[in-house]
Specification:
alpha/beta
Length: about 300
């Protein structure tokens, strides 16, 4: 065990993040009954939580949800950290490793709207609030008549803004809604309609690279199929050098020894969208992701990266 008592789990302090951390806490306690009373959760305020009046694109990207937690890991204040995997930067800081991916929740997006229960049924010109360029680009590709506007905040905040009429619809991850028990208004969307973010629905558990004791404690929580799928998706993202300014989506699915990866890249306005797919052995997950990303890099022109910064 790490050289601390209790064993501290670092997490953001949002309602969803705390539910996710408690889930990991319970899984650790079940796997190691002797530690059940020695596992604590420490909520850490991140830059991404502090600044709510601007999009992630404008304030520096998704690493803003992890850097303060990374610092707590590196200075020994916490032994492990629980993140929504889609919040993890493509490259982790030196000294920190992604060591565990528990079984994945539903990776789909869901539509929540006061004016329709499918993308096709939304009225012409409907205002859709989303902080995700990935979601906005895919929506606009299918429905260029829609208007997308930035919408940040936790699940409850976004739904409250919808109920106040600030937007007519929004998209949220089914996984988060399920974990919060808030699916009553959710209309799941096929991944053929909206392809998820890399890692959507999965949790990432990180710790210090040299902390073998904590890595060993986490080993029973790792889900082989989920971890393999994530290897493919993150290799795809890394090859594209993805940022919050580039709409990129991917979903890998494992069936026995086989893995299927679908990926896409789009322009933020949705006017151009390129897709690819790979099918192969699960042992080739990372190579398949890298190959799929390389293909799209060759096919896409400078317009796809015009908004990166």
């Amino acid at each position: 065990m790490a050289d601390m008592n209790p064993l501290r789990i670092g997490t953001r302090g949002s309602p969803l993040a705390l539910v996710q951390a408690r889930n990991v806490q319970a899984r650790l306690a079940a796997a190691h009954p002797g530690l059940a009373d020695a596992i604590a959760i420490e909520a850490i305020v991140t830059s991404g939580d502090t600044v709510q009046d601007r999009t992630l694109v404008d304030i520096g990207g998704k690493g803003l949800f992890t850097k303060e937690i990374d610092a707590a890991l590196l200075d020994g204040r916490v032994a492990l950290a629980v993140h929504s995997l889609k919040d993890l930067p493509t490259v982790l800081p030196d000294g920190i490793a992604l060591v565990c991916v528990p079984e994945r929740e539903d990776p789909r997006d869901a539509l929540i709207s006061s004016v329709g229960d499918t993308i096709a049924s939304l009225p012409k010109g409907a205002v859709v609030g989303t902080a995700s360029l990935r979601r906005a680009a895919q929506l606009l590709h299918r429905r260029p008549d829609l208007k997308t506007v930035p919408l940040r905040g936790n699940v409850g905040t976004r739904i409250a803004k919808l109920d106040r009429g600030e937007v007519q619809a929004t998209l949220l991850a089914m996984a988060g809604l399920r974990r919060l028990g808030a699916t009553e208004r959710a209309h799941p969307l096929s991944t053929d309609e909206i392809l998820p973010a890399v890692g959507q629905g999965a949790l990432a558990i990180t710790c210090r690279s040299d902390d073998k004791a904590t890595r060993d404690l986490l080993a029973p929580l790792d889900h082989a199929d989920a971890h393999t799928a994530i290897l493919a998706e993150r290799a795809f993202l890394a090859e594209l050098d993805g940022s919050c300014r580039t709409p990129i989506a991917a979903l890998a699915e494992v069936n026995g020894d086989r893995l299927t990866l679908r990926g896409l890249i789009a322009t933020p306005d949705g006017k151009e969208l390129l897709e690819t797919q790979r099918d192969g052995h699960r042992n080739d997950a990372a190579r398949m992701g890298k190959d799929a990303g390389a293909e799209l890099l060759k096919r896409c022109g400078p317009a796809f990266f015009a908004f990166k910064g």
